[in-house]
Amino acid sequence: MPANLATQVTYLGHGREAVRLARAALDGAGRAPAAVFARLYTTEACAQAVAGDQRACTTALRKAANAIERARPEEGPTWVGYFSPAYFAGTAVRCFRDLRMYPQALRHGPAALDLAAHNARTRALHTALLATTHADAGDLDAACDLGTRALHLAGEIQSRRVRHRFAEPHTRLAPHRSVPAGNNLLEQLGTQSAAA
Questions:
Q1: What is the DSSP-derived secondary structure letter of residue 156?
Q2: DSSP 8-class letter at 39
């Protein structure tokens, strides 16, 4: 499916190719339920953010939000059943963070953490993402607090994406090693990486 390929290509950092694949998925969606379009527009938004196109990313996020409002759980196929407003919010955080639009990213933070208890992996991913966003925005205290929470949430989760997401706060906090809270979190993140 082009949407899954677009997601993988986005994670590899090939924005333009991911945009092409995401648009192919949208073109092929026909009269799919709104839940499908919500997922596909967020895929395009991620690709546009990686490609650096702020306007196209924002447009895709707006279309995704509109589709989420129209979506009915009973109408969507099972493969989009996981997609919720919290998943959308996590995508919006990542998109705006990638575009260095930190206030817009952080506005979606609370919704990104509004997950059911059984979504431990996603909660850890979103919390680590918010830690990196706060670090990029220059709020070291919030970054360290969220980074510590994310480490606790990660616990025994074995996931390549979780390990990768924990490499991001380590990289972004490295310049703040002289601050005690930053140094403490960097040591914990280093231990997490060594154990992975």
A1: T
A2: H
Closest Cα partner for 89 from 70, 63, 61? 61
**Calpha distance 136→100 (Å, rounded):** 8
Structural tokens at position 90: 């996590």
Residue 100 has pLDDT above 70, yes or no: yes
Percent of the chain with pLDDT over 70: 74
Distance separating alpha carbons of residues 134 and 148, to the nearest angstrom: 13
Place of tokens 């260095």: 100
Task: Please calculate the CA angle 132-148-43 and round it to the nearest 5 degrees.
Answer: 40
Residue 182 tokens, joined: 């930053």
Instruction: Please state at what angle helix 85-98 crosses helix 34-51, rounded to 10 degrees.
Output: 10
Q: Is the confidence at residue 196, as pLDDT, over 50?
A: no
pLDDT digits (tens, 9 = 90+) for 40-98: 999 999 999 999 999 999 999 999 999 988 877 666 666 666 778 899 999 999 999 99
Residue pair 71/38 in contact by the 8 Å Cβ criterion: yes
Are 66 and 45 in contact by the 8 Å Cβ rule? The answer is: no
